[in-house]
Amino acid sequence: xxxxxxxxxxxxxxxxxxxVGLLLITGLYFSLRTVFLQVRCIPDMLAQLKKGESxxxxxxxxxxxxxxxxGRVGMGNIxxxxxxxxxxxxxxxxxxxxxxxxxxATSFIECTLGQxxxxxxxxxxxxxxxxxxxxEKAYKHTTAAPFFKVYAIIFxxxxxxxxxFFLPGVQANGIASSVELxxxxxxxxxxxxxxxxLGVIVIGGVKRIAxxxxxxxxxxxxxxILAAAIVFFINVDQIGHVFGLIFSSAFGGHAIFGAIIxxxxxxxxxxxxxxxxxxxxxxxxxxxxxxxxxPAKQGFAQSFAVYVDTLFVCTATAFLxxxxxxxxxxxxxxxxxxxxxxxxxxxxxxxxxxxxFDSVFPGFGPSFVALALLFFCFTTIVAYYYMAEVNLTxxxxxxxxxxxxxxxxxxxxxxxxxxxxxxSTSTSASAWALGDIGVGTMAWLNVVAILILQGPALKxxxxxxxxxxxxxxxxxxxxxxxxxxxxxxxxRADGLGTHRTGGxxxxxxxx
Length: 511
Known about the structure:
Distance between the termini: 56 Å
Number of helices: 22
Structural class: mainly alpha
Helix content: over 70%
Strand order of the largest sheet: 1-2
Shape: globular
């Protein structure tokens, strides 16, 4: 009881109203600063996914996007949407859409920063980067350097524990609970099987993770969206009802759900962030691994990931639940204020979409959702491990002994395996509470950081636009832009001879 109260208290502290407001305001601010690039630059997003190339050291933009989606598309897109509706009503879906739209601009900024300040790992030769790297490097060799170095270390430590312990439990819990409902397999057995498979995957490093994600994520995402769309169009007469319910509930105009509008906003933003991760600081890790000629290119690719995650996959789940009436809603005191075809005793989570599919295709729902979660959540756990290892690698730069570094990596692997076992056998509420603490803490640290460090990302964005308008394929040299400490790009520009004709003039105009 004490442990549960401690987790609940910490969760409420992290996810207070200021964080919800900060995420919304930050997304709006970056949307205005970039003149809504999330709309204007959709062609750039799509072009980058098509043209991006990989190298021996880095993944392609498409592979990086799939790695990012592997971390984004998971329990949040299925069970997270269900819990958002259960606690905030259908109006929570609108706020999920809004945080995704605004978050696409936030994601561009953080992922472009991840590319600008990436570096090569001295042991593996692979590209590494993320918030810890850009927090430390952006103000390196200035009087503020010690503060930002400590800040970067704190973020890295928080991320290691969030990615290796707090967050995997939610994904493991989603798999185990859905598999138990579908196939009556004990949760501990599912946990053991996941732990074994994860061990095989992570040994191969970032390249194997990318190859695994490229195969699994697109196929399952398309199948899930198609299945939800089929159910939705079978219930085509519900289209007006679905949209009407979402919008009336979002703004307090619904007779039943209007009383919980505050909860709708909170749960929409909370579950929206958990799903699309825009601003959390996870996207820059995958973005940094990509091989591109200009950081903004990967910023565009990662912005598109937010759309895929929330506007496609989450929306598919929301439409499925509302069109089939497969949900119930409780008020902040836990009283049931609306009950659909789901019994109020059914725990909000994967059971909702399982019941929704089953209402249209009897016998299909439980197994299909369990299979979808098996792939979605497992690829998310794999991505979590990758991000935890990147941040551990950052922390281990001050440890010269390779044996010690290997021991720490193995300890990290053991920690995430323990988290999987704990998450598989714990209650859904406990798993979500721990996950929310991890997401919220990272978001606080990263959003504040990118608001301070936004300058280089905005310069890179302007530089990209100027070069594109000049009719050249954008190449990046940080020095003419006044961006310091981006050593990887300085060496690349010198080594590959990418000082472009007229580049100084273009760069000067982009300041």
